[in-house]
From TrEMBL:
The keyword Ion transport applies. This is H(+)-transporting two-sector ATPase. InterPro entries: ATPase_alpha/beta_chains (IPR050053), ATPase_F1/V1/A1_a/bsu_nucl-bd (IPR000194), P-loop_NTPase (IPR027417). Belongs to the ATPase alpha/beta chains family. Probable catalytic subunit of a protein translocase for flagellum-specific export, or a proton translocase involved in local circuits at the flagellum. May be involved in a specialized protein export pathway that proceeds without signal peptide cleavage. It is an enzyme of class 7 (translocase). Keywords: ATP synthesis, ATP-binding, Cell projection, Cilium, Flagellum, Hydrogen ion transport, Hydrolase, Ion transport, Nucleotide-binding, Translocase, Transport. GO terms for molecular function: ATP binding; hydrolase activity; proton-transporting ATP synthase activity, rotational mechanism. SUPFAM superfamilies: P-loop containing nucleoside triphosphate hydrolases.
Length: 225
């Protein structure tokens, strides 16, 4: 009886092996927008494009026009040529998150950029989590101490509130980002998009990363704030 069950398991495993793999082909490259045919993709679905040196470039379907699918690559489309094969991805690109994110620098796909090794995480986070019913969300009714007296007194921020910091160049946004963290918390999370220079990394990013890894207690700023 056990021999037959092992045989059945072997048959089921063979049935799960794909006999063929669907692949489209690249027909046009316009800047960073790619066009492919022969591989129907849903908007938001991920795919992989084979370059001339047989490396795979991740891309996402962002639109279509009849039988043409528009793709947006996640990296520079270097080494691509007309007729390159496009392979659809059946599974969504889930991002692994965990405690090892503290003090690290990652890109939009959760891949480390700081050259400090892999991220050892076990919890999966979908790239597009389902939206939360606004009637079931917690209300913003508790103030958040950000460590800057002017903001606490005049522009009080609540826990769970979304905050946008927008101003002209050279007025201190980066400095405020380094100051704007709760003094009574041992862990911090700073997020930022900067397209100009790396000069402020020593002043802002590295101190924030050090606090995240070591869990140091926040140092209160001078009384001038």
């Amino acid at each position: 009886m056990s021999d037959f069950s092992a045989f059945d398991n072997a048959l089921r495993s063979l049935e799960s092996i794909p006999l063929a793999r669907v692949a489209g082909r690249l027909v046009r490259l316009n800047g960073i927008l790619l066009e492919s045919v022969g591989c129907p993709l849903m908007t938001g679905q991920l795919c992989r494009i084979e370059s001339a040196n047989h490396t795979l470039i991740d891309a996402q379907a962002v639109g279509f026009n009849r039988d043409i699918t528009y793709l947006m690559p996640f990296k520079q489309p270097v080494g691509l040529m007309a007729g390159a094969r496009v392979f659809p991805e059946e599974k969504a690109h889930d991002i692994l998150i965990g405690e090892s994110w503290l003090g690290r620098v990652v890109n939009g796909l959760g891949e480390p950029l700081d050259g400090k090794g892999r991220l050892n995480c076990n919890d999966l986070l979908p790239p597009l989590p389902p939206s939360v019913n606004p009637l079931t969300r917690r209300s913003v009714d508790e103030p958040l101490d950000v460590g800057v007296k002017a903001i606490n007194g005049l522009l009080t921020i609540g826990k769970g509130q979304r905050v946008g910091l927008m101003a002209g160049s050279g007025v201190g946004k980066s400095v405020l980002l380094g100051d704007d963290h709760p003094p009574d918390q041992s862990r911090h999370c700073g997020g930022r998009v900067d397209w100009r220079t790396r000069a402020r990394s020593k002043r802002v990013y590295r101190p924030l990363a050090g606090r995240g890894r070591a869990g140091k207690v926040y140092r209160r700023r001078r009384a001038r704030r």
